[in-house]
Amino acid sequence: MQELNLKDIYGLYLSNINEQHVASRYTDDNKSYFHGSGAGLCARKHYYSAYTQVEGAGVDENTNRIFRIGNLLHKDIQDAVTWYATTHGLPLLIEKEIILEDLNVRSFIDLALIDTVGEQHVLYDIKTCNSYKWRGMFGRSPDKNPSVNYQLQLATYGIWAKRHYDLDSITLKICYYNKDNSNMREVEISSEFINEAYNYWSNVGHVTGFDSAGGGNLPVVSLGIAPVYEWECNEKYCRYFDECGGGLKGII
Q: The pTM is what?
């Protein structure tokens, strides 16, 4: 009998869960959309995922385990809010699929409280982080360049909500959860990011050719849009690193 190895078993289990997750969310009819979770990041990633639809490199086991912790925390918080909303008669959206056809974007909202009667409109995005990231956001010397992509992702949901419910304004909040010590903090972001998100996706559509010919243009490697940040051109962070030729690293 083969010796049990819990690490390997858990790795196979997470791979199986991920395959089921992808199969449940992505079909041939919706694979050509940009992913809202990639807001504020490299336009070449959007090109590869939406147009060529190459599979790209797989995620290593350690990263899979990190993602799993985030997913479990998401689910636990969503369950808690669902319980609270049910007991207090509050309207709630959980993992709501959204599509912005004009921007070619598809995504899923973590949490949304849209009460057209009581006029309470709040979108939440849940983000897990480690203590290093936490200190960069909330420590004595906060990062002058925080994770703008998180804000643009949430603001992308804001575009949909304002359109769908014909809202003049909406509150956008990111809930951060420190995985190292379980601290939680909500941060409200400016509604101005909604316009920034719209401009970002419009630009992605332009450089990939979506806005004129249905797509098919691989954006030129250029810091600021493809990629947006230098750190994106890294095998650890980009599943299309080899397909892309290394991005910035490939032209140095």
A: 0.89
